[in-house]
Every structure is written in structure tokens, then in C-alpha cells.
Amino acid sequence: MLFAWRGLPGLVCGLVCGTLLGGGFGNVSLGFAVGGLLGLAYALVLPRPLGGKGAAADRAMTAAAFGLPMWGAINVILLPLLAGQMPQWTAEGMRALFPALVGWLLFGFALGLLATGAVRLIERFLGATPAEPKPKVPDFKTRVVILGGGFAGVTAAINLEKEFRHDPTVAFTIVSETNALLFTPMLAEVAASSLEPTHISAPLRSSFRRTAVVRGQVTGVNLEKRSVELSDREETLPYDHLVLALGAVSSLPPGDGIAEHALEFKTLADAMRIRNHVIDVFDRADAERDEAKRRALLTFVIAGGGFSGAELVGGLNDFARGMLADYPNLIANELRIILVHSRERILPELSVSLADYALERMRARGVTFELNARVSAARPGVVALKRKEGEPTEFEIETETLVWTAGAAPNPLLKELPVERDKRGAVLVDGTLAVKGHAGVWALGDCAVVPDSKTGGPCPSTAQFAIREARTLARNLRASILSEPLEAFHFDALGTLCVVGHHTACAEIKGYKFSGFFAWILWRGIYLSKLPGLERKVRVLGDWTIELFFPRDIVQTIDFQPSPKKSAA
Amino acid sequence: MRSRASFLLIGAVVGALGAAALFVLHLVPVLGVLLGGILGACFALLTRFRTTTPGAGLLWGLSFSFLLWLTGPARLLPKVAADTSMGMWDMARAHFPELVGYLLLFGAPLGLVLGACSAREPAAGPNAARFSLPRALVAGGLAGIVGGWAFGQWMEKAHFFPLIAGLVGSASPNVGKSLHFLFAVIIGSTFGLLFQRDVRGCGSSAGWGLAYGIFWWFLGPLTLKSLLSAQRPDWSLAHGQELFGSLMGHIVYGLIVGVIYAALDRLWVVFFIDSDPINRQPEGPGSRTLLSLGRGAVAGLAGGLVFWPQIVAVDGLPWIARLAGGTSPTLGLLVHLAISIAIGAGYGMLFERESPDWGAAIGWGMLYGISWWFVGTLTLFPIWLGASFTWTTAAAAGALSSLLGHLLYGAVTACVFLLLERRHQDWMRLDPRFAAREARLHRPVGTPAPALWFFAIGLAVMLPILLS
């Protein structure tokens, strides 16, 4: 049909226009033959549909331009070679072939014009050539649903897209309570007003090529029916493969008022709340005449001496002490930043020497430490501590600020699932990241206990492990669909970094220890490179550069004080 | 104004007037005036939906008049059909004045007038670009200064500035230099005025610059310079041969203006238009620029490999090896491939999303290849080897053997690049963000690109042959 619609008119036009080539070839028959062939080929490659108004002019000029390389290829190179001569690409040779060049240019123009017109005429009388089939929505044969928009879930989605880039029949959906991936290593800098909140989050919708993003809260998973229930809609999300990447939540002890009065430090909103709370209490302290109350307002207690707590206390200390310059009524001695930790040294993930260095540096900058102690209760204006040793064993600190960073627990939704879990509630998976006893269900990250295939022990719940687990999971998921062997997970940690204040950090990379300014440069450089998206990198770099020249922003963006009702009268 | 009858009438009138001017100059017989009117009407009919702006009209008019010269009423066409003797080349050289006349008196006015008539209608379609006069003048003027500086290097060497100063009755080189830069700014600004709507990427804009540079060689040194000196223009072949260096300078100037203008234009759009949140367009995830660089490099390697046999056949590898301080053919091959990869990467950067199909890819590729023949072979390579660049007919004649190779390199590079660029699955366009971005960034149908390819490539190949 295509040959009749287009090939024949193209052939005829080519034969007619071939008269222009005969002179160049020195052989009229050869001109007809070449012209006919080219006409046929040209008409067959014309686009379907032919094109709108003015297309004839476009085709004619384009074909004329093509006459030039055709002249070069055939008259200058091919024909002399076939005649046993050298190609005629010297100046003299090209001059001799000048008539052929003119012939080719005119042939091209004429062919383009005539062939387009002829095909258009044929189509007008016999009907348009069927257009090229448009891409259609592929039938999805496999549905993969990922629960959780953190490091593990997002990396899993990105790697699954890569693994299945040639297979459009696999559909991906990610369900997340937030619409962005939070870069948690920089969360303390947001609380300390060193970075803008949105700069450390990458929007999910611009992170994926073909993964559908569902913003919502998962209320249940039916493993038998293979569907996911969401809080804000009746219909469920069916799946063929389910990836549990629900992460962890703050583990606040029940009772004793801690859950009611402590600020958490897990999400972007938590960090913003902490920052604004600090500014708020400073303003209240500035107006407070009672010394004891003022001192309580300027006392900040942070529970938990792990990475989160240590980075937060270092950042808050810098931020709070830096703010004093804007509050001349406040005295530096009244400001207390207290880190409460249940063990005898902070930063148990680091070596002893680095942890001690961090503690000494922060102490020198004004941070107070209560080691071998824990927060036992909280009520408005007071936090109760219990010491393991030393006197008094129980005492209270008057404070308006308690931030809880001591411990996290796997997402409580996992308790609803009929899967094997450890005592903390994390899902037990085998070495290939598959949930035991449930085909097509996978788990990784903070919500899972992932065994290392070499050491046999559980992998740490850190971002670098979550990312590598996600890559392995993507490969294994694809292998399971294709009935190929799966690989067991193994990863050697690259190292750990922790920033504890202005130009001060600790780093342990592949056994090498660094501290101080150099470690701080390492911390910033490495985490900047890992921040997802070039735009985010530029924004964070901009924030850090501005910080070199200007003080940290003390504008309060969340108002905690109830505003008095204003009367119109 | 867009009614077919009025358009044809305007075309006929302007065509007849142009032919009348040619008749006055004894370049066409009296019957040519009537023929001019008919051809003007035919041009208007053929390009009614393409001469939408003065710039587009100019290019279509120039390419049409070039085609007419090739066809040459009662001159070349019979020769093409029946004769292959050297006489045709001599005939073409003898009718060089007609080429100038056809371009300047017939094609250019015809295209400009029809384009101007069309430009009175409001632009239609979602992709129709809004014209900005300050943008055209500022970006074009600045681009003209940069291009003028490059051209001025040759003019200084060829002692052309006193000649330019003669236009205002002076002999001072500084006056000549000032005038030169003034002209450069004016020509650059007119580039912006004419082609702002057609400019998308730096690569295609360089093509527009190449064509505009050639046009200004015909208009400036060959015509206006004499008129401004109150002399009759000399359109003879001999005069054209004398001004071959100026032709090269205009080509290089045009290429530079095209690239710089596109870059400045893009900066302007980013700062003043795209930065407005209201103007934000849907974007798909990921950046393609680095991918385009990589694909271009691979494509350039393929083009270099295809170019390689031609270089070997003319024993060009030792010459290329000299660029790296050696003479061995192996070194020459390595240098050649390295250059091919670099230039290919440049193609990827400059021409990404310019080619909706294979025809467009070959067109842009050939234009790119021949640009590098002018910029590389005739300009940069002599400088790199320690000699000053010589824009002479002898140098061009000596380098003609590589002209075809450059065309072939460009075409192969462009096709391989398009093949690599198209490897994404069609079904990804089902994402409306991808589809919107692809539609917005790809060159639409209806631009004067086909006219540009024919005019620029045709004359860029033909002029060195004719004038050598």
C-alpha cells in the first residue's frame, strides 16, 4: 500500500528529474536509473502524514541541499573509483565536475517539489497514507509499589527504573508521607539556621522518570490480597512486588511526660520547629525580668549523644551563642546547652579518641555534658534526670526546651504485618533483602534487619548502607522476575563523619582518623557531593557562602505565641 | 495581507522590479522583467507559509535566487542536460555578476518584502516566539563587536582599514577601524532583528551567521563599498577573487556573531523571561547536556573514522601530525581522531534537539562540517602551525580536497548523534512533562532551516570553487 501511495509517484518523479543528472554522468540512461531509484527511496521516507502548508518548499530546499553530498559521494568519489581512477576531489577535478554539481542541486530541488506534490495529489484522491503509529500506553504486567520516600525508598525507585529501563511493562509507584527526600545529614544545620529548610530536600516528583508518586499515609498492607491501603482514599494500591522502606520514627518513652513535652528531631518540620523555638525563647527571655525564669528559658537540654544529638548540640550552641549579639539584655553566662547521654562517652559509633576530641571541643565552646545520665521525666518548665553514678542520682533542670534524639524505632506500621520481626520491630529479611516467607515482598533500610553476607551480622542503619541495599534490591527484584540467581548483600562501610561546631568535625574514613578544620572541610565536601540534584548543591553552597559574610538568620517563621484577638471597633 | 491573491501580487511586483533593476544593469534581457514578475509570484506561492518574518523571507529569497542563477534561463539548464565540458564552469564564472545581481536585487528584496508583509500579522501557535527589540539590538550589537574583532585581525594584516577609512575621506587606519566596528555592530544588530525568532541553539545560530556573513560579503565589499565611494559596483569575477579574503572574514564573522548572539540571547531570556515564575514551563527530570556531550563525542569519532580514508588518500596525516609537533602518520591519525571527538562533542552541545528527523540532521551536520573547513582548515590550523592565516584563493584551492571530507564528517556525525539521541523509548513521551519539554525545545517545522541549508552550504562549497 505504501509503495502504491508513495513509491510509484516517487519513482515517476525521479525518472523525470533524472534528466538533470544525465549530463553530469555523461550517460542519460544512468541519470534516469539513479534518478528513479532516488525518487523511489525519497518518496518512501517522506513522513506520515506528509506535513502542513509550506511543506513542499521545505522538502524542495532540503532535497536540493542533499544534492551536494550526493554529488560528492557519487560523481567525485564513487564513479572515478569504479573507473579505476582516483577520486576527483582536487580543485581541478571539482571544476571539471561543476556541471554535475549544478545538476544534482537542481535535481534535488525538482525531486523534492514534484514528489511532495505528487504524493499530496495521490493522497487527496485516494485518501491519506496511514500515519505512523503513535506510542501507546503499555500494558503493565508487573506493578512494584515502594512504601517510604526516604533514602532507601527513593534509591530503590531510581535503581529499579534503571534496571527496567528497556521494559515498559513494569510500573513503579512510591508512597510517601512527604513530597520530598530529606537529606538527614544536614538536618542539624537547618535547626541551627545555617541552611534553608527546602535546600536539603529534593522533590520526589522531579526525581523520577516513570515512577508515580503517591503522597499519603499507609494505613495497612494486605499481604494475601497483595494490596496497600491508604488513609485518604478508598481504593487500594495493588502490587506484584512490595518494597518496605518505611524507615524509623523517634522512640519516645511512654509516660513521664517526655512524649508530651519533648521536641523531636526527625523531620524537616522538627528542625524548623527547633530553630523557631530557640528564637522564640530568646525573645521571651529578653523580656523576662526574673533571673531564674530567664535562666530556664536560656537552658536547652538535648537527650541523646549519638550522631544526631552531637551534631544538633554543636549547631545549636553556635546558633544560640551567636544570637546573643542581637540581645544585649541577655548574658552569655545565663545560656546553657546541656547534652544528656546514658553512656560514659558520646558518639559511640566513632573511636574513643575522636569521641573524646569532639567532647572536649564542644565543652571548650560552652556545651555542658551530663554523661551516664538519662532523662527520666519532663513537665512544663522542668526536666528530671537520673544519673547512674555520682551525687545526686536524681535532679532536675529548669528548662523550657527538651529535644529528644535518643533512639529510634522502626515504623510502627510494621507491627501490623504478619512477618518475622526482631525485638525492636524491624522486619527480618534474608541476605537477598527478601522478606522471609512472603514471595514478592522486600525490605531494606531502617525498618529492616539486613544481614551482611560476609560478616553475618546486621548492617548498621545508616544512609550509606540504605543506598547500597537499594541497589542490590533493584538487581534482585529484576532477577526474581526473570528467574535469575539473586545476589546476597555485602557492603564495607566507607566511614563516618560528624560535625560538632564551627569549623570542627570528626571523621573516620577507612580506618583513617581526621579531626578539626580538615575534617570539617571533608564533611562539607562529601555531603555536598552526596546531596541529590545539582540545583540543591548550588543552593546549599550559596547558603554556606553567605554564612561566611553574614550572621545566621534570626527571623522567626513559626509564631508560637497566641495572637490576641483584635477588635474592629 | 495574507490572502493568496495579495501575496502573489506583491511577489509579482517586487519580482518584476528586481528584474527591472537587473535589466538596467544589463544582466537580464527585457523579457526577464516579465519573467521576474512571474517568478516572483511563483516564489510567493511556494513560500507563502514560510516567509513569515523578514529574516525568514530573506533566507528563502536568497536560496530561491541562487537556485534561479543555477537554472539560469537559457544559460545553464541546457548545458546541464546535454554537455559535461569544462565550458559550464567557465560559463558560471562568466556569469558571476548575475549571481550577485540575482541575490541582491531579486531574491533579497523579494524575501524581505514578503516577510515584512507577513510579519504584520500576529504570530500564531503556541511556539510562536515573542519578538523583543532591545534584546535583538543589545545581543546582536555585542555579538557584532566580538565578530568584528575577529574579522579585524585579518583586516589589519591585509591593510584594509585605510580603505575603509576612505569611505569618509580619510586614510587613517584608526578611522577605518572605528568604521569597521560601527559596521560590525550594525550588522550584528540587524542579525538580531532579522533572525531572533529563528535562533534556538548556538549551533543553528552559527549556521544563520554563516549565511548572513556570505550575504553581507555580496552586499558590503562587492556593492555598498563602491556605491558609498560614488563608484559603480564591480561584480566581476576578478573583483570577487580579489575579495576572497574578505569573503572568508565575513564567513568567520558571521559564524562568531551567530554563536555569540545565541548565547547572549539565551542569557537575556534566562534573566528576564524564564526567571519569572509565571513563565515556568514543565520540565522532565534529569539533564541532557552532559549526555549530549558524550553522544557528540562518540558521533564525532564515527565521523572521523569515515573521514580518515579521504585524508589518507591525499596524504594529509603527516600534515595533521604537525599540529602535535610530529610528522608520523600514526600520530596524525591520533590527532585527527582527537580533533574529531572534540568537534563531535561540540556538535552535541551546539545542536542538541535541533534535528527532528534524518534530513534535518544531515543538513545541520553538513553545515557544521563546512563551518569547520573555514574555521579549522583555513584559519585555525595555519595559526596553530605558527603561520598566519592566509585567506587566499590559492589556500582555498589547496584545501578543496578536504572540503568534501568535512561535509561527509559533518553528515555522519550528525546522523550518529541523532541515532544516539533517539534511543530513549517512545513511550517515555507519554509523560506529559517529557512531551512538553521535547515539544518546546525541539526546532519546530516551518523555520527557514531548509533554505538556510541550501543557500549556505551551496554557496560555501561553490564560491571557493568558482573563485579559486
Give a brief rundown of this model.
The complex is a heterodimer of chains A (569) and B (468). Chain A is α/β, with parallel strands linked by helices and 569 residues long.
Q: How many helical elements of chain B?
A: 20
**Poorly predicted segments of chain A:** none
Helix content of chain B: over 70%
Give the terminus-to-terminus CA distance of chain A: 84 Å
State the share of residues found in helices of chain A, binned by percent: 40-55%
Q: Could you tell me how far the N terminus lies from the C terminus of chain B, measured between alpha carbons in angstroms?
A: 45 Å
Q: Most extensive chain contact?
A: A-B, 60 and 67 residues
What oligomeric state is this?
A: heterodimer
> SS-based structural class of chain A?
alpha/beta
Please state the structural category of chain B.
Answer: mainly alpha
Number of separate helices of chain A: 16
Q: What sequence of helices (H) and strands (E) makes up the elements of chain B? A: HHHHHHHHHHHHHHHHHHHH
Task: Explain what this protein looks like in three dimensions.
Chain A is of the alpha/beta class and about 575 residues long. Chain A has 16 helices and 25 strands. In chain A, strands 5-2-1-9-21 form a 5-stranded parallel beta sheet, with helices on one face. In chain A, strand 7 and strand 8 form a beta hairpin. Chain A is elongated. The mean pLDDT of chain A is about 90. In chain B, about 75% of the residues lie in helices and about 0% in strands. Chain B is built from 20 helices and no strands. The two termini of chain B are about 45 Å apart. Chains A and B meet through helix 2, helix 4, helix 5 and helix 6 of A and helix 3, helix 4, helix 5, helix 16 and helix 18 of B.
How is the secondary structure organized here?
The complex is a heterodimer of chains A (569) and B (468).
Chain A: H1 2-17, H2 19-25, H3 28-45, H4 55-82, H5 91-96, H6 98-126, E1 142-147, H7 151-163, E2 170-176, E3 180-182, H8 187-191, E4 201-203, E5 211-215, E6 218-222, E7 227-230, E8 237-238, E9 241-244, E10 248-250, H9 258-261, E11 263-264, H10 268-287, H11 291-297, E12 299-303, H12 307-323, E13 336-340, H13 352-364, E14 367-370, E15 373-379, E16 382-387, E17 394-398, E18 401-404, E19 408-410, E20 427-428, E21 441-443, E22 448-449, H14 463-481, E23 495-501, E24 504-509, E25 512-516, H15 517-530, H16 534-549
Parallel strand pairs in A: 1-2, 1-9, 2-5, 9-21, 11-18, 12-13, 12-18, 13-14, 20-22
Antiparallel strand pairs in A: 3-4, 6-7, 7-8, 10-19, 15-16, 16-17, 23-24, 24-25
Chain B: H1 4-24, H2 31-46, H3 54-71, H4 76-82, H5 87-94, H6 96-119, H7 133-157, H8 161-165, H9 173-195, H10 202-228, H11 237-242, H12 244-274, H13 289-313, H14 317-321, H15 329-351, H16 358-384, H17 393-399, H18 401-421, H19 432-441, H20 449-467
Helix pairs in contact in B: 1-2, 1-6, 3-6, 3-9, 3-20, 7-9, 7-12, 10-12, 10-16, 10-20, 13-15, 13-18, 16-18, 16-20
